[in-house]
Amino acid sequence: MDWGLYSCGYRSDGSGVLRMNNSKGRKIDRREFARKAALLSAAMVPAGMAFEGPAAAAINEQLPEGAEKLSAEGRVEAAARFQQIMSQYGSRFDGEEQKRVRDGCYSLQGTLERLRAFHLENGDAPALYLKPLLEREKKPQSAPAAGAAPAAAKKP
Amino acid sequence: MLKESILYESVGELAKRIETKQLSPVELTEAYLERSQKLGPQLNAYARLMPVEALDQARAAEKDIHRGHYRGPLHGIPYAAKDLLAVKGVQTTWGAKPFAEQVFDYNATVIEHLKNVGAVLLGKAAMIELAGGLGYMYASASLQGETRNPWDTSCWTCGSSSGSGAIVAAGLAGFAIGTETWGSIVCPSAFCGVSGFRPTYGRVSRHGAMALCYSLDKIGPLARSAEDCTRIFAAIAGHDPLDRSTLAVDKAAFTNSPAGDLKRRGLRVGWLTNAWKEYEPGVGKAIQAAHKILPRHFASVRDAELPEGPWEDAAGVVLQAEVASSFGELIRSGRVKELHDPLGRVGGYVNLTVTGGDYTTAQRVREILQKKMDTLFDSYDVLATAALPAAATPLITNLITGLAFPDPLGAIGNLCGLPALSVPCGFTEKNLPVGLQFIGRAGDDAAVLEAGQTFQRATQWHRKHPKLA
B402: which residues sit within 8 A by CB, 6+ positions away? Predict the structure, then answer.
């Protein structure tokens, strides 16, 4: 539903069971998770750009509800995703907003893990097709829309 | 002064009166305007009323009809358009503060089509900000505030075509235009007890409509009956050179004629047994009753199952990735903070992190799903189930915790661009409407509309209206 439970990664978790476990069942403890997350995010974020806010760091260490269902690598990826956002835009968020961003990152991770677990053959092409702009399409003879050609809206 | 019962008549009934000159389009427009001015603010149904323009259009329609130039069933019928459709010279806010002063200098193609058949634009319908594209957790996520459900004003209409649902349910216009990316026509139609139609992707031009998700957005009518939806769809469908996502001329156009697209064939219905995990008790009862009467009116009704797979996940990733592009500038600039909803203010940042690889994987899953669904429609002409497993929720509901349920059907229907129609099929014990949904094969909009008409010939739920002070 596009009231937004899905559009930003926040959604109920009743829609599916994780089918992939990259960790092959290996448990990861909180300390190891935090270390991996820190390593990965440090690798991704250029020096000097990391958002060092103590609140963001603390939030990143608290796993949101449902995060335990993710694979170990998935948790690391979600933490890095959060860190990446905080690095670029962290100063825009208060504590509550940081939590929402973090929850969204972990929720998106669940979505991605289920999606990536779906078996696809190399030849399974995406539902994306280029429609070459043919010469006859460039100048429509009579547009049903009688209005003028689209123009930019007056910017607010 | 027109009686309230006339304002609740279908487009077909109003058209008959107008064509035979028993009803003046000006009188009808004035009556809807007066009712909209009185009840619209109570419901937060409109972003803006356009009385001057509407009366000008109504006078022109009346003049034409008196000259003998009757243009068809929408001539002189007042309607409202969701506030994400460009109307030349009129503010088009997309329901969001950052765009509150936005004015386009052209009409959306849908507005042009309706103008060409003589429909009268009464105003712009309220909507959820940016059609909910960046996420929202409260009904109040709109520049206009929360839209109140005419059946119970302490409840929500659902979104994002919130105003469109309220306007039709409250008898403030003859019909309304809404849009759906994922649930935004079906849900308000069900919550408001009106008939709402989501056409096949590509049959209705989106030129001049706010783009949320390029490969999921659709435009369709909310009206008093499936028959009205058919009439309106016939007026707005068609290839548009200004929207290259529209289907070819012969695939996009739709003719409202029994001899044309609607062939009065005996429809085979597949009753979906796995679309919803559980129903709210009141909803389940109404849906069971609707299920029982189908065999009397359709060629066959057999149980059917949706294929299993990560369809919601694929739809979610497609939506998130495309929204990251359509509203990327708003997010990166930080102006997204001007949105009303606390979730909308931050959700876009997560969307920005979806990779091209994951987006492409979602599109590959989508292609597989399309084939699976096409095969399913070899056995059925339409699939049927509840529009939603729940009825309208209180305005204060946190949607993340209070209206969250798996929605594989919404994901499948929208990922595959399938046509769907929600028609009223009963009420809960709290007198809140329940919707029955028909879904068809891509391009077979006629089957879906015919199924709705068949159901409504056998029932009277679509003729029930809320009591408003």
Answer: B393
